[in-house]
Design goal:
With 211 residues, this protein is an alpha/beta fold. It is built from 9 helices and 5 strands. The chain has a 5-stranded mixed sheet. Helix 2 packs across helix 5 and helix 3 packs across helix 4. The two termini are 24 Å apart.
């Protein structure tokens, strides 16, 4: 389980940073930034992908209540197209850090890419399973994006966004075939391009899924 050992070894205040939504075919990419109080760390923090939706929603409330500071940021589909998904994720991270009510001296960032952020950083591979702060950030990013995609389901019915959040799913593939892409689809993604051309075949789906 994640702990606060990395945080204690860095100059503080330390924020954990993580993103959600680099792989979907539709919707923005999100990021969370969290500065935890070492004396008030919510129980059950973990990589958001290892938690149920209900567990994430409960922990979101606890994180926001107990953290020293927290922030969430997004980068839009248009920004993903302009910058590419990696740099758009970095932009979302910068925006999340910018929402913190306390300026961090240092950031622990999930993964191995050294994003240009407003403070010095340390990258941590699989950090959401190691650092409590990164785990908390991953939860906020995931819950915020999932909530937004549920809202998008009402604005763009027929795609099943509330269920799959823009990721690869049979209902999503069928909707792309029959309805074509909508405004929040990532037009540069190979499956979306092939759907627009009517060339998306079942056998290609796994190869084309971008995670």
């Amino acid at each position: 389980m994640p702990d606060m050992l990395l945080e204690s070894a860095c100059p503080g205040p330390v924020c954990g940073v993580d993103e959600a939504g680099r792989g979907p075919w539709a919707g923005p990419v999100s990021a969370g930034a969290v500065i935890l109080d070492p004396g008030r760390v919510p129980k059950g923090l973990n990589d958001s992908k290892k938690l149920s939706a209900k567990q994430r929603e409960v922990l979101e409330i606890e994180i926001k209540d107990m953290a020293v500071a927290w922030g969430v940021g997004f980068a839009s589909v248009q920004e993903i197209a302009e910058l590419n998904i990696l740099h758009a994720a970095g932009l979302a991270m910068c925006r999340a850090i910018g929402e913190l009510s306390v300026t961090p001296a240092f950031a622990l960032v999930d993964g191995n890419y050294r994003f240009q952020l407003p403070c010095p950083i340390k990258t941590v591979i699989k950090g959401d399973g190691i650092s409590s702060s990164i785990a908390a950030a991953s939860i906020l990013a995931k819950v915020a994006r999932d909530r937004l995609m549920k809202e998008m389901d009402g604005l763009y019915p027929g795609y099943g966004f509330a269920a799959h959040k823009g990721y690869h799913a049979p209902i999503h593939v069928e909707a792309l075939r029959t309805l074509g892409p909508c405004e929040i689809h990532r037009m540069g993604w190979a499956p979306v391009k092939l759907a627009m051309a009517g060339e998306l075949a079942n056998g290609e789906l796994e190869l084309l899924t971008q995670d």
